[in-house]
């Protein structure tokens, strides 16, 4: 059910938890997990009043803190990786577009079974729009899933590809940079303590030197890093990522990494303060976001340059103290490829479309709902259909845009269907955790990461 107002919400919490301005205290945590959290997250997402949604989000965040689940920066773990104190695994950064609450539960079940703690939940700037999930909502869906499954440990929430769009920047640089800065501010307020800055779209390959090619990229990355350091809560060092090559473009080089880092560090020093820089660097090694669909709807095989990835990771660690390189656009790679990422020292790998595909292509997903989504895309996304695209290619490339408009219908699927989809997703997360060697990493996470309980004043409806 969904609580229509804060009076109804507060009454539902009686005998389950109590709260004041400082936070939440459980009266019956088992009952909260079994009887209240499902309704609370649905209210946080679909409540009819903004005040009620805000109250539900506050209760979820503070209930998580009371249970020992706190949002955290992965900075400490990545610094340890940069020092060589921990190694041998690649951190999966998981973008959840559809059925966020159910999918996050599948992640936590796989993590609990394997002892995984080094995993990131993220959402990109573009995904926030087409999935209709603002950072506060996404955070609460993940936190609610942790509470539901009994997971305990730091939660790593990340703003992925907080990207300055090249076309929008060319038209109005100030407005586009401000839009990204505003999103960073919103995300940090919502509990995202890991931010990937993506200004790689502004790399200008027509310039005569590599450093000049990277100048706008590293300059804006440094500017946004400075802003993040001003915004981060006391006791938290937000983990910041940079990017030297746009995903889907030409492969990155060690020379570009050196040019970016030299310019980035020089620009940071000009601020007159000693600021901590990025903890990882995203590179391009041959992938594209979502993969390349073939005429029959299958995904083309990718020739990924693991040698370049290994070299860039090694330089990032040994020369700049970072965790290593980050691989994007990898979820549609064949399963046998994932073993190679830990072997090459890849710090982090971003995974998104593959999980969306599991949901859409599952035999458990209702064909009638899929057909309604596709009919919607025929009307609303027709301008994105390229000449020569088959219907299968068109749907594959655009069906992510159907997730937001049909979000409520997906959340309202019968429990039997949601459980079946969750089981399929859990199996894939378990496989990825095994191949990326993140099983039994919760101990390392707890050793190097100390989450801070950030004060969060209650909204007016709960004051």
Structural key phrases:
10% strand, alpha/beta, globular, TIM Barrel, 463 residues, eight-stranded parallel β-barrel, two-stranded antiparallel ribbon
List the helices and strands and how they pair.
Layout: H1 6-12, E1 17-20, E2 23-26, H2 29-46, H3 50-66, H4 75-82, E3 91-95, H5 100-114, E4 120-124, H6 125-130, H7 135-149, E5 156-163, H8 166-171, H9 173-190, E6 194-198, H10 210-231, E7 239-243, H11 254-269, E8 280-283, H12 306-320, E9 325-327, H13 340-343, E10 348-351, H14 353-361, H15 367-380, H16 391-398, H17 407-411, H18 415-435, H19 442-448
Parallel strand pairs: 3-4, 3-10, 4-5, 5-6, 6-7, 7-8, 8-9, 9-10
Antiparallel strand pairs: 1-2
Helix pairs in contact: 2-3, 2-7, 3-7, 5-7, 5-18, 7-9, 9-10, 10-11
Write a brief structural summary.
The protein is of the alpha/beta class and 463 residues long.
Describe the structure in your own words.
- The chain has 463 residues and is an alpha/beta fold.
- It has three domains: 6-67, no CATH class; 75-358 and 417-448, Alpha-Beta Barrel (TIM Barrel), CATH 3.20.20.70; 361-415, no CATH class.
- Helix content is 50%, strand content 10%.
- It has helices at residues 6-12, 29-46, 50-66, 75-82, 100-114, 125-130, 135-149, 166-171, 173-190, 210-231, 254-269, 306-320, 340-343, 353-361, 367-380, 391-398, 407-411, 415-435, 442-448; strands at residues 17-20, 23-26, 91-95, 120-124, 156-163, 194-198, 239-243, 280-283, 325-327, 348-351.
- It has an eight-stranded parallel barrel, surrounded by five helices. Strands 1-2 form a two-stranded antiparallel ribbon.
- Helix 12 links the parallel strand 8 and strand 9 (325-327).
- Helix 5 (100-114) crosses helix 18, helix 7 (135-149) runs parallel beside helix 9 and helix 9 (173-190) crosses helix 10.
- The chain starts with 5 loop residues before the first helix and ends in a 15-residue tail after the last helix.
- The relative contact order is 0.15.
- Residues 289-294 have low confidence and may be disordered.
């Amino acid at each position: 059910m969904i609580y229509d107002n804060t009076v109804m919400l507060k009454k539902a919490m009686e005998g389950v938890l109590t709260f004041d301005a400082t936070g939440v205290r459980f009266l019956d945590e088992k009952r909260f997990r079994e009887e209240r959290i499902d309704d609370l997250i649905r209210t946080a997402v679909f409540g009819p009043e903004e005040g009620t949604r805000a109250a539900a989000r506050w209760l979820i965040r503070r209930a998580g803190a009371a249970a020992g689940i706190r949002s955290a920066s992965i900075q400490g773990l990545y610094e340890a990786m940069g020092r060589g104190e921990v190694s041998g695994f690649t951190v999966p950064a998981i973008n959840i577009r559809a059925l966020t609450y159910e999918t996050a539960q599948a992640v936590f079940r796989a993590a609990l079974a394997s002892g995984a703690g080094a995993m990131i939940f993220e959402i990109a700037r573009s995904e926030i729009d087409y999935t209709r999930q603002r950072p506060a909502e996404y955070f609460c869906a993940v936190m609610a899933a942790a509470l539901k499954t009994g997971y305990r440990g730091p939660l790593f929430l990340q703003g992925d590809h907080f990207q300055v769009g090249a076309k929008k920047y060319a038209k109005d640089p100030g407005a586009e940079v401000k839009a990204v800065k505003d999103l960073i501010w919103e995300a940090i307020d919502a509990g995202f303590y890991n931010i990937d800055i993506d200004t790689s779209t502004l790399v200008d390959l027509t310039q005569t030197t590599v450093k000049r090619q990277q100048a706008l990229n590293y300059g804006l990355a440094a500017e946004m890093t400075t802003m993040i350091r001003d915004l981060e809560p006391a006791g938290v060092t937000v983990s910041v990522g940079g990017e030297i090559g746009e995903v889907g473009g030409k492969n990155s080089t060690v020379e570009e990494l050196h040019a970016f880092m030299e310019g980035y560090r020089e620009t940071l020093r000009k601020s007159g303060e000693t600021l901590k820089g990025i903890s990882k660097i995203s590179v391009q090694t041959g992938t594209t976001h979502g993969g390349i669909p073939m005429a029959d709807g299958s995904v083309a095989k990718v020739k990924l340059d693991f040698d370049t990835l290994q070299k860039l990771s090694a330089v990032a660690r040994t020369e700049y103290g970072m965790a290593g390189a980050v691989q994007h656009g990898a979820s549609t790679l064949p399963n046998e490829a994932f073993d190679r990422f830990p072997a090459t020292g890849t710090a982090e790998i971003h995974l998104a479309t593959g999980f969306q595909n599991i949901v859409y292509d599952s035999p458990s997903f209702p064909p009638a709902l899929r057909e309604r989504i596709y009919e919607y895309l025929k009307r609303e996304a027709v301008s994105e259909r390229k000449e020569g695209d088959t219907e299968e290619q068109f749907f594959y490339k655009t069906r992510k845009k159907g997730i937001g408009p049909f979000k409520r219908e997906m959340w309202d699927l019968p429990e039997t269907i949601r459980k079946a989809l969750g089981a399929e997703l859990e199996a894939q997360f378990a496989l990825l955790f095994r191949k990326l060697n993140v099983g039994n990493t919760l101990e390392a996470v707890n050793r190097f990461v100390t989450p801070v309980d950030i004060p969060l004043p209650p909204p007016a409806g709960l004051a």
